[in-house]
Amino acid sequence: MAGTGVFAxxxxxxxxxxxxxxxxxxxxxxxxxxxxxxxxxxxxxRVQACTQEEVxxxxxxxxxxxxxxxxxPLWKRAELLHKAAAILKEHKAxxxxxxxxxxxxxxxxxxxxxxxxxxxxxxxxxEGVRILGEGKLLVSDSFPGNERNxxxxxxxxxxxxxxxxxxxxxxxxxxxxxxxxxxxxxxxLVLKPPTQGAVAALHMVHCxxxxxxxxxxxxxxxxxxxxxxxxxxxxxxxxxxxFTGGDTGIAISKKAGMVPLQMELGxxxxxxxxxxxxxxxxxxxxxxxxFSYSGQRCTAVKVVLIMEAVADTVVEKVNxxxxxxxxxxxxxxxxxxxxxxxxxxxxxxxxxxDAKEKGATFCxxxxxxxxxxxxxxxxxxxxxxxxxxxxxxxxVLPVIRINSxxxxxxxxxxxNFGLQGCVFTRDINKAxxxxxxxxxxxxxxxxxxxxxxxxxxxxxxxxxxxxGITNSINMMTKVKSTVINLPSPSYTxx
Length: 494
Ligand SMILES: NC(=O)C1=CN([C@@H]2O[C@H](COP(=O)(O)OP(=O)(O)OC[C@H]3O[C@@H](n4cnc5c(N)ncnc54)[C@H](OP(=O)(O)O)[C@@H]3O)[C@@H](O)[C@H]2O)C=CC1
Ligand SMILES: O=C(O)[C@H](O)COP(=O)(O)O
What we know:
7-stranded mixed beta sheet, alpha/beta, 6-stranded mixed beta sheet, glyceraldehyde-3-phosphate dehydrogenase (NADP+) (non-phosphorylating) activity, NADP-dependent glyceraldehyde-3-phosphate dehydrogenase, 14 helices, 24 strands
């Protein structure tokens, strides 16, 4: 159970502690932040509202710890990461319980998130050993005018202190996707978890603590992003920011100093359906892609662009599947669970009402109880409706009927987002050409968008840089070169 057994140290009475300098601590602020259960809409947990002074101390400790960590052999860093991964998986049940209570993630998906996170950490350790174990040797005579009298040895070295800010929808997985690469590359890491999901993240951090990472190398400060976010992201002790979330990321990138940024923001993933597609496959992927975790995934299908000739058939097939989705609490492992906050539910409702006023066809009756919104397919959506462009982050999916592939590509590319997209057709040549034309980081052919497997590059225009294990390790390093200057040119004869 959360906050008990090996996790007892994390809890102080009714309030979860924050993690600094290898210890669990209560904040001197005496203030707490409430985490509201999306299902009951009651306070489920409380976390510390950390102060600026506490952030300063964490940054100082992170700087000191990083210097020693960078001198720790790569294989030892990997060994500790493997240990943390095993502990994380061993304790999947209490961590998953937090995900169910804090973010209403369906019970089975919550367990999968923790297991996937352990696997991600292990893979990162292995990948880090491989890619950081190699450097480059450059010789000078390849550049015009030079002889071979200079040897340049370059390798990847850490950046320093990495600040990780994940979003609510994967508070564990999108935290470890930043923690693992940062640590294997020799950085220290300061985590600011999302408020909804903070307790799951604190439990995950405790698994790293139990694995025996040095003091100060990992810290976790809690508090509302709106209150301590700016102080963290503009802190002079930060050498890199890895952020996943919404428009907050745009504001951060404007305020952050001259540090490398990894920003993974929203998406409006388009699903283009051609008339030669396997329509059962299309319907299955629209439902899975559009409605898993109630549409609260950056990679969710967020607009269907379908050829008029097959639209009626697909809409009918999708509706039949939507009717079978189980709606209810995450504890019952329902497919559709309450969305994360009341304000999120209100925002989604605003998009639905706009579509209603402008004449979209409601394939199901709109129904909401508290934060629980029943799955809804909106047909005959037109570009003048907000839902055609905005990301609901909820179980509402618009269908726009198109008369040509070009029309679909045009809609996709006119969006400000460009995270992922997908195309359904039996013609591989067409699929490749459409993929090339879609200005999206990743295009899936004949499957719904998805980030995983987690070693795939997770590229996008909806942000800066790219994720995926290898990309993140590379992003959290810089190149250091040492040039050997020979007294006279030297050429190897064999
Ligand atoms: N691309 C993706 O993977 C995802 C995209 N999103 C997008 O984000 C929207 C909202 O999701 P949400 O998680 O609330 O995203 P936010 O951008 O609101 O929050 C993401 C993280 O940033 C923190 N934060 C908030 N304000 C600041 C600040 N000023 N400085 C630094 N950090 C801050 C949040 O903390 P706190 O919780 O304390 O406010 C949270 O940890 C969704 O509607 C969707 O558009 C969301 C999830 C994933
Ligand atoms: O933040 C998100 O929504 C994720 O990066 C999407 O991951 P998924 O495709 O594995 O759900």
